[in-house]
Amino acid sequence: MLTAIVLIDTVPDRIPEVATQVTNLRGVSEVYSVTGKADLVAMVRVGEHDELSSVIADGISKVPGVLRTETLIAFRAYSHHDLEQAFALGLDD
């Protein structure tokens, strides 16, 4: 599973509509309204690299009101939540 964090800049008065449309795209697991550098942050989870361009370039970037995106590809998750689940399932890392 590949995870990408997509920072999304939008037209200011379209943030809720953009968030709703992005949330409905296949591969987008969640969308957050945030403060700081971006207006929205989308978590994209797909099985293959080719799917990233479909979700981001052909999906998110084409939603009306999206001005620009910046994509961060996750290499590894370091989360207490994920670690607790792995230990609970008896998985080796």
Radius of gyration: 15 Å
Mean pLDDT: 90
Number of domains: 1
Output the number of helix runs.
3
Helix content: 25-40%
Question: Given the helix and strand composition, which structural class is it?
Answer: alpha+beta
Identify the CATH architecture: 2-Layer Sandwich
The separation of the N and C termini measures 15 Å
Protein name: DNA-binding Lrp family transcriptional regulator
InterPro entries: Dimeric_a/b-barrel, Tscrpt_reg_AsnC/Lrp_C
Domain Transcription regulator AsnC/Lrp ligand binding: 6-76
Keywords: DNA-binding
How would you describe the overall organization of this protein?
By secondary structure, the chain is α+β, with helices and mostly antiparallel strands. It has a single domain (2-89), classed as Alpha-Beta Plaits (2-Layer Sandwich), CATH 3.30.70. Helices cover 29% and strands 32% of the residues. The chain contains three helices and four strands. A four-stranded antiparallel beta sheet has the order 2-3-1-4. A hairpin with a 6-residue loop joins strand 2 and strand 3 (40-46). The mean pLDDT is 90. Residues 6-76 form the Transcription regulator AsnC/Lrp ligand binding domain. One of its GO terms (molecular function) is DNA binding. InterPro entries: Dimeric_a/b-barrel, Tscrpt_reg_AsnC/Lrp_C. Keywords: DNA-binding.
Quick gist of this model?
The protein is an alpha+beta fold and 93 residues long. It has helices spanning 15-23, 49-56, 80-89, and strands spanning 2-10, 28-33, 40-46, 66-73. It has a single domain (2-89), classed as Lrp/AsnC effector binding domain/regulation of amino acid metabolism (RAM) domain (Alpha-Beta Plaits), CATH 3.30.70.920.
